[in-house]
Design a protein that fits this description.
The protein is of the alpha/beta class. Helix content is 53%, strand content 8%. Strands 2-1-3-4-5 form a five-stranded parallel β-sheet, sandwiched between helices. About 7% of the residues have low confidence.
C-alpha cells in the first residue's frame, strides 16, 4: 500500500509537470476562460505571456509590464510593438496583483530571461491594507516570498494567517491546485460536475477583496462627495466608480506600508542582481481621487521610489512624465481608457528602450 500511494503521487506530479511545464496550453486556456471571467482570464494570459517570451522562444530582448488591473488597462502591447518593434513587450497584470504577488513573480520573470521589467506602482499599491490570497486560483505566491513576508510581518501575524502556510507550498508543488479556478472555468474538470442548462448557467465573480490582514482603518467618504464624483461617469460605470472610491479611501499610513515597500525593494534587488533593468512607472489615479484621501501619501511613495533609484539605479517615471492627465483619459476611478493608455504606453516604451539599448 505505501508503494502504491507513492507511485500514485509520483504519477500525479508527473502529469502536473507535463501539462503545465511541457504542454503549457495557456493560449487555449486564455480563450476558454474569456475576458468576462476576470481576473482568471488575465492570469491565464499572463502565464502564457511569460511562457511565450521566454529566452528559449524569443531571440531578441524582452520586457514585462507588471502590475494590477491598472497596468493591464494602461499598457497597450500593440502600441508598444509599433513604437519599438526591436523589443518584445508582454503584460503580466491582473486584478489584485499587489507587492506580495510582485515579489512572488520575480523568480519566474528572471527565469524567463527578461531584459527589463516595468513595475506599475503608486501609493495605491503601497498604502492600502494587506490582503492575502485575494482570489482563488490566481495567487502568484512563492515560498521564498512568503518567508520574507512573514519575517517582515512577525510571528503573531504568521499565526493569525497560518492557513496561508498550508496553501502556498501546495500551490507551488501542484499547479493543478494553484490554477484550479482557471481549469474549472475552462471546463477541464467538467467530468466531476453537473452541467447546468446554458441559459441558467452563471459564474459568480470572485470577491475583489478579502478581510484585511494588516493595516487599514474603516473610513466613510462624504455621501454628497461620492455622488458628485460618480455623476461625472456614464450610468454603466457608476456602480464600479462607487466601489473604487471605497478602495481609494483605504489608503493610510501604518505597518503595512513598511512591509509592502520592503517586498518591492526585495523584488527589485533580485531583478537587479540578475542583470534585469527595472523601471518603476507611477500608476495614475483619476484626478478626483485627490478629493478622497491624503495626497501627502504620494510624497511618501515618491520618497520611497527615489530611494530605490539611488540604491538600485532604477528608472522612475513620475506622473508628470505622462503629461497632464485629465478625466477624459480615464474609464473609471482607477483605470485609464484607450486614450490615456496610448500616452502611458508611449512614455513607458521610450523609457524601457533607453534602459535596454543605451
Amino acid at each position: 500500500m505505501p508503494w502504491g500511494g507513492l507511485l500514485a503521487l509520483a504519477a500525479v506530479l508527473l502529469l502536473d509537470r507535463l501539462f503545465f511545464g511541457v504542454i503549457a496550453p495557456w493560449g487555449v486556456l486564455t480563450e476558454r476562460v474569456g475576458p468576462r471571467e476576470r481576473p482568471h482570464h488575465q492570469v491565464a494570459r499572463s502565464r502564457g505571456t511569460i511562457r511565450r517570451l521566454s529566452a528559449a522562444a524569443v531571440d531578441g530582448p524582452t520586457a514585462f509590464v507588471v502590475g494590477s488591473s491598472r497596468a493591464d488597462r494602461a499598457f497597450d502591447p500593440a502600441t508598444a510593438r509599433r513604437r519599438l518593434p526591436e523589443l518584445e513587450f508582454g503584460r503580466v497584470a491582473f486584478a489584485a496583483l499587489r507587492p506580495f504577488e510582485m515579489r512572488s513573480l520575480t523568480d519566474d520573470l528572471i527565469r524567463s530571461g527578461a531584459d527589463a521589467v516595468v513595475l506599475t506602482l503608486s501609493e495605491f499599491d503601497t498604502h492600502r491594507p494587506i490582503r492575502l490570497d485575494p482570489m482563488p486560483g490566481t495567487s502568484a505566491a512563492s515560498v521564498g516570498a512568503l518567508a520574507e513576508f512573514l519575517g517582515l510581518a512577525g510571528t503573531r501575524f504568521a499565526f493569525e494567517n497560518r492557513t496561508l502556510l498550508y496553501r502556498v507550498p501546495l500551490s507551488r508543488v501542484l499547479d493543478a491546485y494553484r490554477f484550479r479556478e482557471i481549469l474549472r472555468l475552462a471546463g477541464l474538470d467538467s467530468l466531476r460536475e453537473f452541467r447546468l442548462d446554458e441559459k441558467r448557467h452563471w459564474t459568480r465573480a470572485a470577491p475583489l477583496s478579502r478581510p484585511v490582514a494588516m493595516g487599514g482603518r474603516r473610513r466613510r467618504p462624504p455621501a454628497e462627495l461620492v455622488e458628485r464624483i460618480v455623476a461625472d461617469f456614464p450610468e454603466r460605470r457608476r456602480r464600479a466608480a462607487r466601489y473604487q472610491i471605497w478602495m481609494i479611501v483605504e489608503m493610510d499610513v501604518g505597518p503595512h506600508v513598511r512591509v509592502q515597500q520592503q517586498l518591492i525593494r526585495n523584488a527589485i534587488a533580485r531583478l537587479r542582481m540578475a542583470g534585469v533593468q527595472v523601471v518603476v512607472a507611477e500608476g495614475p489615479l483619476h484626478p478626483d481621487a485627490a478629493l478622497l484621501y491624503d495626497v501627502g501619501l504620494r510624497d511618501d511613495f515618491l520618497a520611497f521610489a527615489d530611494a530605490l533609484h539611488v540604491e538600485f539605479g532604477i528608472r522612475l517615471l513620475r506622473l508628470e512624465a505622462f503629461g497632464a492627465l485629465s478625466p477624459a483619459d480615464f474609464g473609471d476611478m482607477l483605470h485609464l481608457n484607450a486614450r490615456g493608455a496610448q500616452r502611458f504606453t508611449r512614455v513607458v516604451v521610450d523609457a524601457v528602450g533607453g534602459a535596454v539599448f543605451d
